[in-house]
Amino acid sequence: MNMQTRNDPFILMAGVYLTVGLLAAIGTLTVEAGLLEPLPRLRWVTVHFVTIGGLTQAVFGALPAFVAARSTRRRSSAGRSRWLQWVSVNAGYPLLLVGMTRGSTITAGAGAVLVLGALLSLLVTVFRLPSSTVAAGSARYFRTAPWFLVVGILAALGMLFGVHGPGGYFGSLEAHVHANVWGFLALVVAGVLLTVLPELLGTDRRFPRARAVTYWGLTIGAAGLVVGPWTARHELTIGGLVIYVVGTGALLASVVGTYRHSDRQQDSRIALVLGAYFWLLVPVPIAPFVLLFPTAVPAAAIERAAINGLVFGWLLQLAMAFLPVVAVAARRDPAAFVDAIAAAAETAPQPSWWQVGSANAGMLLLWLTAVPLADGVASLLTLGGYLLLAAAWAAFVVDLWTALAGERSVRRRLEETPFG
């Protein structure tokens, strides 16, 4: 069997951008501490380091392997088109960042178009691949998800060039965020969890019928969350949110049920998953008040906390749980990718409990900044929140690069080294 011994280039770039994102988060710390003057669009740049720079790159690398794992048919799409995708997304993303920070619409637009071209090419690759038995139930998640990113990029282009729907600029902004995060990344994450957890925990997946509820709940719900803000129809947004929560509940039932049916290993990874989905769902009961009574609640502070929760509370914790494992498994022959997950989990660094606590405590402090009673200490809460997140993020970056290097966890090596 042909064994792959090199790192996937997309996942390698995910490591680069997540490292740079950590530096941007540290930059935010210095700004909050008053050591640096505020930098233009630093918060949004940091968010995009995690989303497009880190997680989207990882999705580009792993998605074809998830769709066609264990397939016996020869795959011919992993050659030139994959490298063209890599060049396109890694040329487009820096242009997008430069355009955002310098306020250059043309530069940012050119970057978005290059990323869009890479995405359309990825869609062709994924649809041409034969679905394997192991991924047969999850393949539709992986094939539907990129279409939401197409919509998200089109909404971003609309914001850049002033083309909006009835919801105006802020409707386009919400549609962009919802399409990219609640649609694209959430569907990929759901498909990965349903595929990986049984392999990782060594047990059968519980509640298999919940998979259809999860798929349709997330897909229809995310569609409502995209169309509602763009068209300024609150009933679509709230209806989409309700359906989305049903789909997420079905996913969490599968995750918890599968974990309880196992020998209860991988505890810290499951804790990161549950913590991640907690921060995803925190805005749900608040969202109708922000939509219907924006002057009665601190809407701007809540929106800022909600986006932080989506990116740093949800996506970053999921990356901490699984990206080092995916990095190790991706070094194998793609046909053995899913089979390699359990072994990769034994080799890859295990997230520590202090890392779980630090990430969630940091996110709690950032959410507290949206509470009106905390106005007087909002800067202090933000500083503490980013400090705790940066600590957990730094440990994750060390573990990710350790996994990419094919070594054991640096922390484990230090623990095993005798002193004195």
From TrEMBL:
The keyword Ribonucleoprotein does not apply. Keywords: Membrane, Transmembrane, Transmembrane helix. The keyword Coiled coil does not apply. It comes from the Archaea. The chain crosses the membrane at residues 12-35, 47-71, 83-100, 106-129, 141-161, 181-201, 213-232, 238-259, 271-293, 305-330, 351-371, 383-404. This is Cbb3-type cytochrome c oxidase subunit I. It comes from Natrinema thermotolerans.
